[in-house]
Amino acid sequence: MELTVTTLAERPELQGALWAIKDLWPEFTLHDPVGWGYMARIVTELPEYVLVATDADGEVVARAFSVPFRLAGEDRGELPARGWDEVMLWAFSDLRHGRTPDTVSAIEVCVATKALGQGLSGRMLAEMRDNARRLGFSEVVAPVRPNAKHLEAGSSIHEYAFRTREADGLPHDPWLRVHVRAGGVIEAVAPASMTISGSLDQWRRWTGLPFDTEGPVEVPGALVPVHCEAARGYAVYVEPNVWVRHRL
Protein backbone atom coordinates (compact mmCIF):
# COMPACT_ATOMS: atom_id res chain seq x y z
CA MET A 1 0.00 0.00 0.00
CA GLU A 2 1.25 3.46 -0.93
CA LEU A 3 1.45 5.37 2.33
CA THR A 4 2.23 8.94 3.38
CA VAL A 5 3.01 9.43 7.08
CA THR A 6 3.11 12.89 8.64
CA THR A 7 2.75 14.36 12.10
CA LEU A 8 -0.52 15.96 13.07
CA ALA A 9 1.47 19.16 13.69
CA GLU A 10 2.25 19.17 9.96
CA ARG A 11 -1.32 18.38 8.89
CA PRO A 12 -3.73 19.60 11.60
CA GLU A 13 -6.64 19.39 9.16
CA LEU A 14 -6.55 15.58 9.56
CA GLN A 15 -7.59 15.67 13.21
CA GLY A 16 -11.24 14.82 12.53
CA ALA A 17 -10.40 11.97 10.16
CA LEU A 18 -7.86 10.65 12.64
CA TRP A 19 -10.56 10.10 15.27
CA ALA A 20 -12.88 8.53 12.71
CA ILE A 21 -10.73 5.38 12.46
CA LYS A 22 -12.56 2.54 14.16
CA ASP A 23 -10.26 0.98 16.73
CA LEU A 24 -10.32 -2.60 17.99
CA TRP A 25 -10.14 -1.82 21.71
CA PRO A 26 -12.78 -3.73 23.72
CA GLU A 27 -15.56 -1.43 24.89
CA PHE A 28 -14.63 -1.63 28.57
CA THR A 29 -11.10 -0.33 27.91
CA LEU A 30 -12.55 2.95 26.69
CA HIS A 31 -13.61 3.66 30.28
CA ASP A 32 -10.13 3.76 31.76
CA PRO A 33 -10.18 7.17 33.51
CA VAL A 34 -6.60 8.05 32.57
CA GLY A 35 -7.15 7.31 28.90
CA TRP A 36 -10.49 9.13 29.03
CA GLY A 37 -8.82 12.21 30.47
CA TYR A 38 -5.61 12.35 28.45
CA MET A 39 -5.91 10.78 24.99
CA ALA A 40 -7.56 13.84 23.46
CA ARG A 41 -4.94 16.08 25.08
CA ILE A 42 -2.17 14.28 23.17
CA VAL A 43 -3.78 15.45 19.94
CA THR A 44 -4.25 19.06 21.03
CA GLU A 45 -1.11 19.61 23.15
CA LEU A 46 1.45 17.24 21.63
CA PRO A 47 0.58 17.07 17.90
CA GLU A 48 4.23 16.56 16.93
CA TYR A 49 3.98 13.17 18.70
CA VAL A 50 0.89 12.11 16.73
CA LEU A 51 1.47 10.35 13.41
CA VAL A 52 -1.16 10.06 10.69
CA ALA A 53 -0.93 7.75 7.68
CA THR A 54 -2.88 8.43 4.50
CA ASP A 55 -3.25 6.18 1.45
CA ALA A 56 -2.97 7.10 -2.22
CA ASP A 57 -6.48 8.59 -2.12
CA GLY A 58 -5.67 10.77 0.88
CA GLU A 59 -7.77 8.70 3.27
CA VAL A 60 -6.49 8.27 6.82
CA VAL A 61 -5.74 4.57 7.34
CA ALA A 62 -3.62 4.54 10.51
CA ARG A 63 -2.59 6.67 13.48
CA ALA A 64 0.05 6.43 16.18
CA PHE A 65 0.18 8.31 19.47
CA SER A 66 3.21 8.78 21.70
CA VAL A 67 4.17 11.08 24.57
CA PRO A 68 7.47 12.51 25.85
CA PHE A 69 8.31 12.21 29.54
CA ARG A 70 11.23 12.38 31.94
CA LEU A 71 12.28 8.91 33.08
CA ALA A 72 15.32 10.11 35.00
CA GLY A 73 13.24 12.19 37.36
CA GLU A 74 12.84 12.10 41.11
CA ASP A 75 11.08 8.93 42.32
CA ARG A 76 11.33 7.50 38.79
CA GLY A 77 14.31 5.91 37.04
CA GLU A 78 12.50 2.64 36.29
CA LEU A 79 9.64 1.92 33.93
CA PRO A 80 6.49 2.10 36.06
CA ALA A 81 4.49 -0.90 37.21
CA ARG A 82 1.38 1.10 36.35
CA GLY A 83 2.55 1.21 32.73
CA TRP A 84 0.19 2.90 30.26
CA ASP A 85 -1.70 4.89 32.88
CA GLU A 86 1.38 6.06 34.76
CA VAL A 87 3.40 7.11 31.75
CA MET A 88 0.60 9.39 30.56
CA LEU A 89 0.31 10.93 34.02
CA TRP A 90 4.07 11.49 34.06
CA ALA A 91 4.03 13.01 30.55
CA PHE A 92 1.38 15.60 31.29
CA SER A 93 2.79 16.38 34.73
CA ASP A 94 6.16 17.03 33.07
CA LEU A 95 4.51 19.20 30.42
CA ARG A 96 2.70 21.24 33.07
CA HIS A 97 5.84 21.75 35.18
CA GLY A 98 8.19 22.43 32.28
CA ARG A 99 10.42 19.40 32.86
CA THR A 100 12.64 18.43 29.95
CA PRO A 101 11.70 14.95 28.69
CA ASP A 102 14.35 12.33 28.00
CA THR A 103 12.23 9.43 26.70
CA VAL A 104 9.27 8.86 24.40
CA SER A 105 6.58 6.31 25.22
CA ALA A 106 4.32 4.72 22.65
CA ILE A 107 0.66 5.01 23.60
CA GLU A 108 -1.33 3.59 20.69
CA VAL A 109 -1.04 2.31 17.14
CA CYS A 110 -4.40 1.98 15.39
CA VAL A 111 -4.98 0.72 11.84
CA ALA A 112 -8.26 1.14 9.95
CA THR A 113 -10.17 -2.11 9.57
CA LYS A 114 -9.91 -2.08 5.77
CA ALA A 115 -6.12 -1.79 5.96
CA LEU A 116 -5.47 -4.62 8.43
CA GLY A 117 -3.13 -7.42 7.44
CA GLN A 118 -0.84 -5.24 5.32
CA GLY A 119 1.93 -4.62 7.83
CA LEU A 120 0.82 -1.11 8.73
CA SER A 121 1.20 -1.60 12.48
CA GLY A 122 4.89 -2.40 12.04
CA ARG A 123 5.30 0.52 9.64
CA MET A 124 3.71 2.92 12.13
CA LEU A 125 5.95 1.61 14.92
CA ALA A 126 8.99 2.26 12.71
CA GLU A 127 7.70 5.75 11.92
CA MET A 128 7.20 6.43 15.63
CA ARG A 129 10.81 5.44 16.30
CA ASP A 130 12.00 7.68 13.46
CA ASN A 131 9.89 10.58 14.71
CA ALA A 132 11.34 10.27 18.21
CA ARG A 133 14.84 10.25 16.72
CA ARG A 134 14.07 13.39 14.68
CA LEU A 135 12.87 15.08 17.85
CA GLY A 136 16.21 14.38 19.51
CA PHE A 137 15.46 11.29 21.62
CA SER A 138 17.59 8.18 21.84
CA GLU A 139 15.00 5.84 23.30
CA VAL A 140 11.36 4.81 22.85
CA VAL A 141 9.59 2.61 25.37
CA ALA A 142 6.25 0.91 24.87
CA PRO A 143 3.72 -0.50 27.35
CA VAL A 144 2.61 -3.20 24.94
CA ARG A 145 -0.86 -4.74 25.13
CA PRO A 146 -0.13 -8.30 23.88
CA ASN A 147 -2.80 -8.83 21.26
CA ALA A 148 -3.22 -12.59 21.72
CA LYS A 149 -3.13 -12.71 25.53
CA HIS A 150 -6.93 -12.46 25.69
CA LEU A 151 -7.09 -15.98 24.23
CA GLU A 152 -5.61 -17.32 27.47
CA ALA A 153 -6.75 -14.88 30.14
CA GLY A 154 -5.93 -17.34 32.91
CA SER A 155 -2.24 -17.59 31.99
CA SER A 156 0.40 -15.70 33.94
CA ILE A 157 1.44 -12.50 32.19
CA HIS A 158 4.92 -12.97 33.67
CA GLU A 159 5.29 -16.24 31.78
CA TYR A 160 3.44 -15.08 28.67
CA ALA A 161 5.54 -11.92 28.22
CA PHE A 162 8.75 -13.91 27.83
CA ARG A 163 7.35 -16.95 26.04
CA THR A 164 9.07 -17.59 22.70
CA ARG A 165 8.55 -19.74 19.63
CA GLU A 166 10.75 -22.79 19.35
CA ALA A 167 11.32 -22.30 15.64
CA ASP A 168 12.93 -18.84 15.71
CA GLY A 169 13.15 -17.66 19.32
CA LEU A 170 10.81 -14.74 18.67
CA PRO A 171 7.99 -13.90 21.11
CA HIS A 172 4.91 -16.09 21.08
CA ASP A 173 2.66 -13.01 20.97
CA PRO A 174 2.21 -11.38 17.50
CA TRP A 175 2.38 -7.74 18.65
CA LEU A 176 5.39 -8.40 20.85
CA ARG A 177 7.01 -10.05 17.81
CA VAL A 178 6.53 -6.85 15.79
CA HIS A 179 8.32 -4.87 18.49
CA VAL A 180 11.22 -7.32 18.78
CA ARG A 181 11.65 -7.49 15.01
CA ALA A 182 11.83 -3.69 15.04
CA GLY A 183 14.72 -3.86 17.50
CA GLY A 184 12.86 -3.71 20.79
CA VAL A 185 13.82 -5.67 23.90
CA ILE A 186 11.21 -7.05 26.29
CA GLU A 187 12.19 -5.62 29.64
CA ALA A 188 9.49 -6.09 32.27
CA VAL A 189 5.84 -6.61 33.05
CA ALA A 190 3.66 -3.67 34.05
CA PRO A 191 1.16 -5.62 36.18
CA ALA A 192 -1.27 -2.73 36.71
CA SER A 193 -1.02 -0.85 33.43
CA MET A 194 -4.70 0.06 33.22
CA THR A 195 -7.34 -0.04 35.96
CA ILE A 196 -11.05 0.10 35.14
CA SER A 197 -13.74 -0.05 37.80
CA GLY A 198 -17.47 0.22 37.41
CA SER A 199 -20.81 -0.79 38.76
CA LEU A 200 -22.22 -4.17 37.79
CA ASP A 201 -24.72 -2.44 35.53
CA GLN A 202 -21.89 -0.67 33.73
CA TRP A 203 -19.99 -3.91 33.24
CA ARG A 204 -23.16 -5.55 31.91
CA ARG A 205 -23.52 -2.74 29.36
CA TRP A 206 -19.87 -2.88 28.36
CA THR A 207 -19.70 -6.66 27.96
CA GLY A 208 -23.21 -8.12 27.66
CA LEU A 209 -22.37 -10.51 30.51
CA PRO A 210 -24.54 -10.99 33.64
CA PHE A 211 -21.89 -10.14 36.28
CA ASP A 212 -23.95 -11.82 38.98
CA THR A 213 -21.38 -14.11 40.64
CA GLU A 214 -18.51 -13.43 43.01
CA GLY A 215 -14.93 -13.73 41.83
CA PRO A 216 -13.12 -13.78 38.50
CA VAL A 217 -15.10 -13.32 35.28
CA GLU A 218 -13.50 -14.00 31.91
CA VAL A 219 -14.52 -11.24 29.50
CA PRO A 220 -13.95 -11.32 25.72
CA GLY A 221 -10.97 -9.11 24.92
CA ALA A 222 -9.71 -8.94 28.51
CA LEU A 223 -6.12 -10.03 29.09
CA VAL A 224 -6.90 -11.28 32.60
CA PRO A 225 -10.21 -12.00 34.38
CA VAL A 226 -12.29 -9.13 35.75
CA HIS A 227 -12.78 -9.32 39.52
CA CYS A 228 -16.48 -9.16 40.39
CA GLU A 229 -17.69 -8.11 43.85
CA ALA A 230 -21.34 -9.02 43.24
CA ALA A 231 -22.41 -8.49 46.85
CA ARG A 232 -20.93 -4.99 46.82
CA GLY A 233 -22.20 -4.06 43.37
CA TYR A 234 -18.97 -3.39 41.49
CA ALA A 235 -16.24 -5.05 39.42
CA VAL A 236 -12.61 -4.12 38.72
CA TYR A 237 -10.28 -4.96 35.85
CA VAL A 238 -6.52 -4.52 36.27
CA GLU A 239 -4.78 -5.02 32.93
CA PRO A 240 -1.13 -6.03 32.66
CA ASN A 241 1.05 -4.80 29.81
CA VAL A 242 4.62 -5.62 28.80
CA TRP A 243 7.35 -2.99 28.74
CA VAL A 244 9.48 -3.05 25.58
CA ARG A 245 12.50 -0.78 25.22
CA HIS A 246 13.71 0.50 21.83
CA ARG A 247 17.18 2.07 21.66
CA LEU A 248 17.40 4.39 18.67
Compact overview of the structure:
The protein has 248 residues and is an alpha+beta fold.
Overview of this protein structure:
- There is one protein chain.
- It is built from 7 helices and 9 strands.
- The chain is of the alpha+beta class.
- Strands 1, 2, 3, 4, 5, 6, 7, 8 and 9 form a 9-stranded mixed beta sheet that branches.
- The mean pLDDT is 97.
Please name the defining characteristics of this protein.
7 helices, alpha+beta, 9 strands, 28% helix, single chain, 248 residues, 9-stranded mixed sheet
Q: Roughly what percent helix?
A: 25-40%
**Structural class, from helix and strand content?**
alpha+beta
Q: How many helices in DSSP terms?
A: 7
What is the global morphology? globular
Overall pLDDT: 97
Rg over alpha carbons: 18 Å
**Distance between the first and last residues' Cα:** 26 Å
Looking at the chains present, what oligomeric state does this protein adopt?
single chain
Approximately what portion of the residues adopt beta-strand conformation?
25-35%
- The SSE order reads EHHEEHEHEHHEHEEE
Low-confidence stretches: none
Number of strands: 9
Q: How would you characterize the largest beta sheet?
A: 9 strands, mixed
SSE layout and pairing:
Blueprint: E1 4-7, H1 15-20, H2 33-45, E2 50-54, E3 60-69, H3 83-97, E4 103-111, H4 120-134, E5 139-144, H5 157-160, H6 174-181, E6 185-199, H7 200-207, E7 215-217, E8 226-229, E9 234-247
Parallel strand pairs: 4-5
Antiparallel strand pairs: 1-2, 2-3, 3-4, 5-9, 6-9, 7-8, 8-9
